[in-house]
Amino acid sequence: MQTHSLPDKNGYFGEFGGRFVPPELESALKILTQKYYQLRKNRSFQNELHAMYKEYAGRPSNLYFAQNLTNKIGGAKIYLKREDLNHTGAHKINNCIGQGLIAYHMGKKKLIAETGAGQHGVATATIAAYFGMRCDIYMGARDIDAQKPNVYRMKILGANVITVTQGQSTLKDAVDAALTAYVKEPDSYYLLGSAVGPHPYPVMVRDFQKIIGKEARIQILKKEGKLPKAVVACVGGGSNAMGAFFAFLPDKEVVLIAVEPAGKGEDSNRHGLSLGKGKVTLIHGFKTLTLQDKDGNIAESYSAASGLDYPGVGPELSFLKTTKRLTCVNATDKQAVNAFVELSKTEGIIPALESAHAVHYGVLLAKKMKKDDVIIINLSGRGDKDVEHVYETFLK
Prior knowledge:
It is a single chain. 45% of the residues lie in helices and 18% in strands. By secondary structure, it is of the alpha/beta class. It folds into two domains: 13-53 and 91-206, Rossmann fold (3-Layer(aba) Sandwich); 59-89 and 210-395, Rossmann fold, CATH 3.40.50. The protein has a six-stranded mixed beta sheet with strand order 3-4-14-9-10-13, sandwiched between helices. A four-stranded parallel beta sheet has the order 7-6-5-8, with helices on both faces. Strands 1-2 form a two-stranded antiparallel ribbon. It is globular and about 55 Å long.
């Protein structure tokens, strides 16, 4: 099966994906699906999108040779795809520009979104301000406490930040609350932040994020005259990973490496290893690999990185794993924090704690490779939001 041709018309990537939602949501999503596929082929819309990528987000983002880190470890050349340099500080703005444009073309006046680490919330609030829309952001109480700087940014941008206290008060629960609100407000637009959820969200988010890998592929060929041996990205829901991986899918010689959050350890039951340990089930209106308890219920996930704290994963990543196109590894909280500090002190770049998971494994991989080999690590966001939390929790 040609991966680039997926999903099918019903939103499936192999056995994963689809749309399993109540009738009132089904109707809204059918309209959205039709509108998206119309705009996807519309040259004027694509010109608008890429003009905003350039003029508003600051694309293309730099592909940076991490010379100090490369010299320190003595292995393959490490390149960082600098999504942390985008406006708002992460890859999330790519998707929010795209979906914000869709909402604008649909005549919507309000955006609803969920957020974990707060980067998607900030990007959504940013686009709402740009288009003059009202904005509600649902965020788990635990994440609000850990990501205070982003909460302040959302509020300053004019968003209404709504605290979610049910469940474990994290990203899964924020998604639940946002979907519930969306059903009750049909005149709003639900701007889902990751490559998850019912069709058409996984394909929309991937399409708006694939600019990451498209740029990186062109950039590495220009800089090195060859493709990388591997592309490494952290995975929670999977938007930055699918963005980084998609352009390289046809290049079978390029290993695509998904780094999941092992939290307190693989055997601790305090992790977010949906690809590594998940089973096929439904979550948030789609079918994918999901953490389950012994009774078959969705289990709690955990990661010190709020943006990776989700018990499921995007359906396309589940498909890529089962077709063996994806290599799945992990990093613990401690390993991610160590990488967070190492990149900061070695390159003067403070990464998001989510991105630090990818940095950890990328460094391990590069150490084992030849000096003329090349790898790309997707630096999905900057770590300003994490500095207080990491310092107070892990370094003090």
